[in-house]
Amino acid sequence: METKITERKMTLNDDIKHTKFMKFFSAVFYACCSFFIIVVNKCILTQYKFPSFMFLGIGQMTATIIILFVAKMNKVIHFQDFDKTIPGKIFPLPLLYVGNHVTGLGGTKKLSLPMFTVLRKFTILLTMIMESRILRKTFPSSLVFSVLAIVLGALIAASSDLSFNAEGYTFVLLNDVFTAASGVYTKKKLGMEELGKYGVLFYNAFIIIIPTVLASAYTGDLQKALAFEGWLSFTFIFYFLLSCVMGFILMYSIILCSFYNTALTTTVVGAIKNVAVMYIGMFVGGDYIFSWTNFIGLNICISAGLIYSYITFSGSSSEANVNPSEHTAIRITDDHPEKT
């Protein structure tokens, strides 16, 4: 009997170590993929002056569909075959994806980079609220305070650029809502055994791609992309195909990070990556304008983000394993934080 109990404890410890490793690995994998695709897309859109964000997105969705379909046909992966229940199971992810894309582009055009950055940080707070309300998650108070510190740092960083643009603010705040909701509902859909990680990826891209192509053709965006002279360059084609494949890998890394972590952790990892990109921009590119308020705000953001990461991945008080008898957890309500 004692031998069996010992074996079970060893198996449980191995499972815990594996889960901790996958939580950390999936977060790092997502951050690296997100950074790398920014570099590739910037090369395509800036260096080669490719005229269409939307066509690039269509290419990434096409790559996702082809890769997953071929893998399914060769029995490398498995997910549910298409039937009339699929749209209901995947809803509302396609609508959230489209809303996220449209409002994101609108906000980018209307606002300066500092204000866009600070308003996007509210995605973290909204994700925490939605996870608490929709998924019934509870969070240790230390995680809540680190999230609030990230938002505070972003506010300080952008305090020297308070130009008001009602349309731009509306676009970005809606973008925050769509992004947060997309992350939370992705986490919820991953709990459906029939779909799984690959089914969520495949059917989301499959449903979205048709209206995206129609919208691209209607706006003339598709014609501009097809008429682009760079298609005659082997180097450009290589970068375009690389972006398409990286688009699939990025979407997979988001799903993987959300699967092993919470939607909030996935959002915070993205925010830390964005701050890291801004740090790099201080030394590379030459377009960063230094100010003490911006610099102090960025340092608060990155410090709070690192504290959040330490609490989450150290395993001492992970949000996935909160013990109410050992930690003070906070459930976000409509009116005020309520201790549980």
Topology pattern, helix = H, strand = E: HHHHHHEHHHHHHHEE
Mean pLDDT: 79
Radius of gyration: 21 Å
**Ranges with pLDDT <50 over ≥5 residues?**
316-340
Count of discrete alpha- or pi-helical segments spanning 4 or more residues = 13
Number of strands: 3
> Distance between termini?
38 Å
Tell me the major beta sheet: 3 strands, antiparallel
Strand fraction equals under 5%
Structure classification: mainly alpha
Shape descriptor:
globular
* Proportion of residues in helical segments: over 70%
Q: Could you please describe the fold and organization of this structure?
A:
The protein has 340 residues and is an all-alpha fold. It contains 13 helices and three strands. The protein has helices spanning 2-47, 53-73, 86-90, 93-110, 113-120, 122-134, 141-157, 166-189, 196-219, 221-226, 234-260, 263-283, 292-314; strands spanning 139-140, 329-332, 337-339. A three-stranded antiparallel beta sheet has the order 1-2-3. Strand 2 (329-332) and strand 3 form a beta hairpin. The radius of gyration is 21 Å and the shape is globular. The chain starts with a helix and ends with a strand. The model is unreliable at 316-340 (pLDDT under 50).
